[in-house]
Amino acid sequence: MQNHSNLNDIGVIGLGVMGKNLALNIADNQYRVSVFDLDPVKVNGVLQQEKQERVGQELRITGCANLSEMLASLTKPRILVLSVPAGAPVDGVCAALISAGIEADDIVIDTGNSLWTDTVEREQHYQGQFIFFSSAVSGGEVGARFGPSLMPSGDLGAWQHVAPIWKAIAAKVNPQTGLPIERFEPGNPVTEGEPCTTYIGPAGAGHYVKMVHNGIEYADMQLICEAYQLLHDGLGMSAAEVGEVFERWNQGSLNSYLMGISAEVLKQADPLTGKPLVEMILDKAGQKGTGLWTAVSSLQIGCPAPTIAEAVYARAVSTQKSLRVELSKKLAGPLSPAMDENQKANLIDALESALYCAKVCCYAQGFQLMAMTALEQKWQLDFAEIAKIWRAGCIIRATFLQSITQAYQADANLSCLLMADTFASTLSEKQTEWRIAVAAAIMQGIPVPCISSALAYYDSYRSETLPANLLQGQRDFFGAHTFERLDKPAGEKYHLDWSAQERVLIKL
Ligand code: 6PG
Description:
- With 508 residues, the protein is α/β, with parallel strands linked by helices.
- 52% of the residues lie in helices and 9% in strands.
- A 7-stranded mixed beta sheet has the order 3-2-1-4-5-6-7, with helices on both faces. Strands 9-8-10 form a 3-stranded antiparallel beta sheet.
- Catalyzes the oxidative decarboxylation of 6-phosphogluconate to ribulose 5-phosphate and CO(2), with concomitant reduction of NADP to NADPH.
């Protein structure tokens, strides 16, 4: 709705990379924006960029010197977007807003990667002072500027106010094909297509879903890195050659943003030495913690997400560079089996299948985790909608999210993605190649923790019987922990008197 007053529609607080680009995106979509940052240089930076981009046109962004000025510049109820680092800074700005006179029906949207339980607490804590709303944002700098994937949650009344702006600034998808509609032009936002935002659920739900998105992101990235190592170290391909293979894969079922950027990174020469840039980058991975939170959450709730957890461990092992250097001189590896060109080509094809299967498993783990937490938290998560809003704008956007969308549209209560016919049949078809790729990596001594853990996940779930029967026997032996029997009603507990001379079965 057009605002005819002299007041602005929305305020953005925190003008780092994400805040600045969100502000410019909102302004591109015909909203008037007030901006504030503790650093006046950043405020000026946004204003300058707007001037450059909108020569001869009306300017829509107003810089504020402090939060009181920002509050005075906005229509009521005010909508304030926080783009500050997760943790204490969020509460710092909230406290400052209270001092500046924020009102009970004003809406504060936390767009950072906050821990979801903090969001739940904050909604409670600020009740009566203002509405603490949250919306996780995915897509990095370019996404924030030209269309991110947005995961809002919290007060439904607040969402009614925020929704038109959110739908306007979100990434857009062609609803028929499920493919992103992209245009990276300042002042010319994409207005057609389905917006990549949907109301996720009560407070914390959006941040939880974003956290799982990031867990999947960690695993997806690590899977690609493992494929790179097998092709580079195992098959002796150059970084650029691996980049070409990835480019080819990106034309098929593995098509995704992460596959595309990996190909670009691999083909990039180092401006300093002319060598492949990737070979000059120190092999120690950073992390801000969202993948770790996902793994922790999976362990706490008892949802198997081994591929996500392995991706976090892989980053941890990578940081122990000096230990790896020492152990590389001490521990033996296999003699790599020689391969002719034909065998190499077959392995490359097998690896493509392995990567696809492992990727499906990693998404299956993420969706199962969300489902179990939703049940525990009594959230009504709509998984078809979640898959839909991940089809564009976000880091894990991939063509096959359309198949995930369709799988949940066909059955909203799908217990596991592997149950969907489309994935069950493709994985069954490709599983032999998956095993060939994992076996080749193992025989070459190349670590593939994510690709192989996904295979173990697949094999575990397709096993009607697991050795947990022996495990229950062990537990009963040393700790009298009891067991159930296959031939007796569920819930009936038995214990064998292991220490007695004559071992008798006791029904408890
Ligand atoms: C996104 C990203 C973004 C960021 C993560 C992961 O969806 O836009 O997930 O939020 O890349 O914080 O960063 P780390 O790899 O540093 O943990």
